[in-house]
Automatic annotation (TrEMBL):
Entries under Gene3D superfamilies matching the protein: 3.30.1340.30
Annotated signal peptide: 1-27
UniProt KW keywords: Signal
Name of this protein: Hemolysin
Pfam families for this protein: BON
Domain BON, chain residue ranges per copy: 45-113, 122-189
Length: 195
């Protein structure tokens, strides 16, 4: 009998923990959707474009010759990463431009050797430090800025005012290990990528 009660208690704890995880994930997704000025349909379309671009980079002939991250906002695709040669980079960019739903491509893929595991870990650490510093800045409370780091270059993506974008870029520039900051913000109407 004690074994049954103990099993029931453990099972309840596991199930409740799972519910809390689902609740938190659901709340985070809802908050993301609510703070985004795009419709849910536009957000899904952009997410699918990003996944399609990243998936293409993981297929022949690009696989093992490129390392690409893609972020899409209103049909504008920001490509970040490395390509072993310029021709492959240009071919990849053209394929992305030809995808249905893509309005503009900002190609920030660098022609250079692909990052090592150590370099990728270093970039992850830089991203963590930048995100923490952005969260600590009161002028950026409630603003959703995505941070990506590739070869110590920090990419800032989000919907902000010009002042908020400048504050975020200044914060990122002053993080140890950052070699450059690229602002890929939407400022009301239109969008831009600045180095």
């Amino acid at each position: 009998m004690k074994l049954v009660k103990l099993s029931a208690l453990l099972l309840s704890a596991v199930l409740l923990q799972g519910c809390a995880g689902l609740f938190i994930a659901g709340a985070a997704t809802t908050a993301s959707v609510v703070t985004d000025n795009r419709t849910v349909k536009e957000q899904l379309s952009d997410k699918n474009l990003s996944l399609e671009a990243t998936g293409l980079a993981n297929k022949a002939p690009y696989q093992y010759n490129m390392r690409v991250n893609a972020v899409t906002y209103d049909g504008k695709v920001l490509l970040m990463g490395q390509a072993k040669d310029a021709q492959m980079n240009q071919e990849f960019e053209k394929k992305i431009k030809d995808m249905k739903g893509v309005n503009t491509v900002y190609n920030q893929i660098r022609v250079r050797p692909l990052l090592t595991f150590t370099q990728i870990n270093n970039d992850s650490w830089i991203t963590t430090k930048v995100k923490s510093s952005l969260l600590a800045k009161s002028e950026l409370n409630g603003i959703k800025i995505s941070v990506f780091t590739e070869a110590q270059e920090v990419f800032l993506v989000g919907f902000v005012t010009e002042e908020q974008g400048n504050i975020a870029a200044d914060i990122a520039r002053n993080i140890k290990g950052v070699k450059g900051v690229i602002k890929a913000f939407e400022y009301g109407q239109g969008g831009s990528v600045e180095q």
